[in-house]
Amino acid sequence: MPDRPPFHRQSVTDVFAWLDRVASPCGREEVPLGEAAGRRLADAVKAAAALPRCDVAAIDGYAVIAAGTVGASDYSPLPYRAVDGASPLRAGEASPLVSGETLPAHADAVLDPALVEQHALTMEISGTVAPGIGVIVAGEECEAGAPLLHAGRQLRPHDIGWLALAGIETLPVLGRPRVRILLAGHYERDANGPMLAAAIRRDGGIVGGTDEIGDADALTAALRQPDDDLAIVVGGTGQGANDFSVAALAHAGSVDIYGVAMNPGESAAFGRVGERPVILLPGQPLASACAYDLLGSRLVRRLAGHDTALPYVRVERPLARKIASTIGRLEVCRVRLRDGLADPLAIAENRLLRSAVRADGFVVIPENCEGYPAGTRVTVYRYEP
What we know:
Oligomer: single chain
Distance between the termini: 47 Å
CATH topology of the largest domain: Molybdenum Cofactor Biosythetic Enzyme, Chain A
Number of strands: 26
CATH architecture of the largest domain: 3-Layer(aba) Sandwich
Helix content: 10-25%
Number of helices: 7
CATH class of the largest domain: Alpha Beta
């Protein structure tokens, strides 16, 4: 087996460039409309027909001819006759209908039920409506042939409802990358596998399996299996005698980057086996989480066709206390949000996974910065919306 390549910290910007070079969306597939929420459209979707196809009620009420209601008021209600709407409507007639129901012929408005007093055989209306009130006219949602949604859109629940109205039953969406997690070494209790699997699913990937690998030869063999779009190896990225992950990747394919100018997560590595990218993350859970969030997440999201921005809501807050950092290395500092301030966690706690559990979010200090004094407004990436 070849020796482990030399450790050399690359800037996060250089790592981003590598990730963007090796990533391309994972094909496409057709899925039922009800399973498409959160997926990215592979192609634009156009309306086969006008939506709605004909004038429909926008509210529950009574279909009427608007001109016939002129002069109606509380003091001078007009007598009307209730009809079923099967025949064209005439002046002095009102047809009850519910929202979304097709208007009878000649009807051009829907009267609010509050303006109608129903009697045994007749009704009285006490209000005037203009043409178009309470009506969604044919083609108001969209015209026939008009684009409903553009390619690349991440589908929201409202989109699904709108497409259902248009009669769409299946959609072409970008494929989801299949990611295999390989745990290098033995873990009495594995935190990394479940944590990374949750993050991969969040980013649009499918976890193809989580396997524990005991030695370099077994890891080399696992990396050469062509079943997945991406392999993520956790652990064994240090420079100790028992750290075999980087050497195994060099044997199976190539190591393009070993070392990142960031803390935590500096021992992360990146390479390829054939055309398939491979990410090596540190085994320490907090370092693994940080390296995945800032770097690995970008690759999974690109493979899934998603935006590469960090998948967290951003807010700005003044710092309650200063944050010190080292020039030449990007650092991640977890903070709590209270009293309108971002309060950095203690340095000792920032090394522990529980810091991410207790924190409300984190601040990224760029490589060219020595930190921020108290009171500086910083961007906080919130773990929760």
